[in-house]
Every structure is written in structure tokens, then in C-alpha cells.
Amino acid sequence: MMLTGPSLWAALLACISGLIVLFWKLRSTSSSQLPPGPSPIPILGNFGLPKDFRTKFIRWADQYRDVMTVRVLGMPLIVLNSRRAITEIFEKRAASTFGRPERVMAQELVGLSEDAGQTSDLKLHREYRRLFSLAMSPRAVQAYAPYQIQQFRQVALDLLRSPAGWEGTMTRAVSTIAYRVAYGYDIKDVDDPMLVRANKAMQITEKIVTPGNFLVDVLPFLKYLPEWVPGADFQRTAKVYQAHFAETREVPFRLVEQAMADGTAKPSFVATLLEEHGAEGGQYGKERIMWSAASIHTGGTDTSAAAIHNFLAAMVLFPEVQSTAQAELDRILGKPGRGTSPPTLEDRERLPYCCALLQEVLRWQPVAPFSLPHAMVREEVWEGWTLPKGVIIFANVWAMSRDERDFPHADRFDPTRYLPTASSSSKPTFGFGFGRRVCPGQHLAEATLGAAVLTLLWALRIELPAGVNVEWREEYGVNRPKWFPIEVKERFPGAREILRQSLLQQQTE
Ligand code: HEM
């Protein structure tokens, strides 16, 4: 918490008033018909941060079925446990469930209420979604395919040289893709100030959206304290953060403007929108374009990197799946060797097993096991249960990914579940969220994952050293494995040389 030093009177008063507000809210919500749920542990609620919280959420989903209420610090949270509830509540009642939770520090004080992923302002959110649908459509993202492929050819070479560095190598590749897509900017290396600034912005975001880091989120009226009051140092911190976010948005945007003026701009999200709507951004204005471009790095980096880390874990834990995918590559593209070229994203449509493998990565270890929280913007009643205005509501994606009715032997990594057959067309995919908030970067993300899957499987054989276990981080947010050692070999003699040559050739094109 950022309340330190001689803040004590203010804090004490704040705490007492806060508790009154909390209990008042609690009383008023508990009098309505909330969905059933596990009995709350007084004050702490259901989240004593149990080690096995995922198992708990599966058990609760079995017990309470479609929709349940869990309580954190006595406050109710609604959880949707089934596809039926998601269709009925997140999709059919999307206008009521599209909000985001209120976060005083992040949104009001740091100013992220204008952020595409955080705003609950209907008009603003619509504008962002229109910008994304223009410049992130399946067609628009095709322009970035060569660059995505190029990045993963480099990743394959880096893995051969330094397998232990896989986490950083893959994360750097997706950050680089994000900057190229957003601004046409090529990140030079890990010390590139553009990347350092963006990574710091991501760290700040994580800090300010994590519940419990700032007392002002629990006791919102503290936001009225002027910054000179002892203990109100969060006000100064908020200003520093706000300035950092503004710089992160503005510096690369100005570079695109300059490059467009010089006639040297590369294709990018910002360049596309400024070309389409004029230098001032037309009906949207520059500000909206600036904010939406910034969310490509914030929304797309950690998530895409985690999905690729999960892919790597699947390949070493299920080597027979790795072999089957490689057999498909060889059958369709021809035996690799001298005179052949690595796959491109256009090959995806001829490679159903590799595409199914990608979907299975997102099911087997969903990147966001509880998706992102939405908030009710108005009250709804569903099957007799009240979903009150203002309440946080989220999807139990983890339990759905482990539902044996949809996915027999759900812990097994089995791409055949998603092969294009009559029965697989009804298999749920839920890795990218729901309703009006569904991830606008899905097509870009799938192409990035596709580039990783095709390139790495074509060039490399990746294995787990004997006796090594793969474990997952027990976090509520992004789901990814802990670091583990890997062994990486060329899958055929000359793979390294072909990758190098293809990169040289791409540079001259
Ligand atoms: C494998 C990679 C990715 C995964 C698994 C993923 C997943 C998600 C999920 C679960 C949500 C929340 C949806 C909801 O609230 O219902 C989301 C939202 C979002 N994602 Fe992604 N995402 C990925 C990549 C990307 C990329 C590449 C971008 C770049 C444009 C992006 C931009 C966003 C934005 C801006 C939002 C907020 C949308 C809104 O609130 O309206 N994501 N994503």
C-alpha cells in the first residue's frame, strides 16, 4: 500500500468511513437475490488466496452450475461457469455487462479511464471498437504476416544458440511485433528506449490495477485529499504515472507523423488510420488513435508471450503431438532440407493439425483463466437471480476448459479436438473473452501464434531434459509456466543456415 508515514489520522478516519460504506453496500446487495455460492468466510471472503484456487473454482462450478456468487472482503462477485450462462449474460445482455470495474487509482487519478480496455464509457468504447475493427480486421492484419514470420525465424535461431533464454527471446519477439504493428517502428534491442518505456508502462499498469496496492481503491473518498496532506503521496505517484503513460503514447505516435510527412512511414495501425481519416484523425481525433495504438502493446504483449510459452510447454510435455505436427508439415510442404524454405502464414490453411494445435494451446492452458473482469452497467435478472448494477462479473474459463463433457481427458493436450470435423465445429473456444469486450487483437494474436507454431516446429526439435517437471505459476491473471530448461536441436541438417538465409533475403526485399 502507498499510505505511509504520518498519515495516521487521515487513514483512521478513512478506514472507519470506508467500513461504514462497505457494510452499507454489503447489506443492500445481500438483500437482493444474488446467485448462490460458497459460504463466505467473514471479512476475507472466499479468497484466502488458496494454493489450489483453480481446483476450487472447478469444484464450485460443478456444485453451483451456471452462475454463482463468491465474496471478496464481503463484496459479491458474480462468476459465470457455463457456456449457457456466457451466451445468455455476456452475449445476449452485452449492453448491460460490458462495463469494467471501477478503479480509482488507475482510472481516475492516473487517467486510464480513457484506455480502450478500461473505459466503461459507452461512446468512447464504441469509438475504440470501430478503430480496431478498421485496422485490426483479418484482412488488415495480413499486412504484418511477413514481419511476424521474420521474428520467429530469428527466435528459432536464438533458441538454437541459447535455449535457456527462451522466455526473454519469445517475449522480445512479441513486443517487437506490437511496435511494428502499432507504429511501423523496429525495436532495435532490449535497451531500445521505446521498449524500456513501454515495459515500464506495463509494470505500472499491473501495479495500479492489482486490488489492494492502493488504499484509495478501497476508500475512494481519499482521492479528494490534496497531495500535501501527509499520507496522500499516492496523488504525486499518480501524476508521475500519468506523465509516463502520456510519453509512452505520444513519442511513437509523433514518429509516425514525422515518417508520414517524410514519406518513409511503414504500414502500421497508426499510419492506416491517419491515411484513412486525415492527419487530424477525422471524426475520431488524434487522441483516440494514440490511445488505441498504445493498447496494442499493453493488450497484446504479455498475453501473446504467455500463449507461446504455453505452446512450448505443450510441445515438451507431449512430444508425440510435436511429432504429429511435424509429420503434417513434411507431408504438406515437403521434406525440409537444402533448397527448401521455411513456412509462411499463407501455409496455415493447408495445415489443419497445426491450426488445431494452436486452438488446443488456448484451451489447455487458457492465457486468462478467469478472463478479464466486466462490471454490470445496469441491473439484470436472469433465471430469478439478480445481477446488480456495479457488481463485478467474470467468466470461469478455467472450469470450462476442464469440463469433461466438452473435453474428455481435459488435462491431456490433444489437438484432434479442434480438427475441422462436424463434431469439432461446436467445440467452444473462449480464450479471447466475451460480448462487447471480446479481444480486438484476436486475429493478430492468432497470426503471431501461427508464426511461432509453424516456424519453430518446422526448424527445431524441442525436448525436456530427463527428470525435469513443468509447473505453472499460481496467479489469478495471466497463466503461464514457470521457467524450465529445454534442449533444442535442428530438426534436419542445414535448418540454421536456411533460417539465416531467409532472414537476409527478407532484409533485402
Ligand atoms: C494470445 C493472445 C491474446 C489473448 C489470449 C488475449 C485475450 C484477451 C482477453 C481474455 C480479453 C478480455 C476480454 C473480455 O473482457 O471479455 C482481451 C481484451 C483485450 N485485448 Fe487481447 N488477447 C491477446 C492478444 C491481444 C493483442 C495482440 C492485442 C492487440 C491489439 C490485444 C488487445 C486487447 C485489448 C485492447 C483488449 C480490451 C478490449 C476491450 O476492453 O474492449 N489482445 N484480450
What does this structure look like?
52% of the residues lie in helices and 6% in strands. It has 509 residues and is an alpha+beta fold. It has a single domain, classed as Cytochrome P450 (Cytochrome p450, Orthogonal Bundle), CATH 1.10.630. It has a 4-stranded mixed β-sheet. A two-stranded antiparallel ribbon has the order 4-5. Residues 1-20 have low confidence and may be disordered. Protoporphyrin IX containing FE binds at residues 116-117, 136, 295-296, 299-300, 303-304, 307, 367-368, 371-372, 374, 431-434, 437-441, 444-445.
Topology order in helix (H) and strand (E) letters: HHEEHHHHHHHHHHHHHHEEEEHHEEH
| CATH top level assignment | Mainly Alpha
Whole-number average pLDDT? 90
Q: How much strand content do the residues show?
A: 5-15%
CATH topology: Cytochrome p450
Kindly name the structural category: alpha+beta
- Individual helix count: 19
Which runs of at least 5 residues are low in confidence (pLDDT < 50)?
A: 1-20
GO molecular function: heme binding; iron ion binding; monooxygenase activity; oxidoreductase activity, acting on paired donors, with incorporation or reduction of molecular oxygen
Organism: Calocera cornea HHB12733
Keywords: Heme, Iron, Metal-binding, Monooxygenase, Oxidoreductase
Family: Belongs to the cytochrome P450 family.
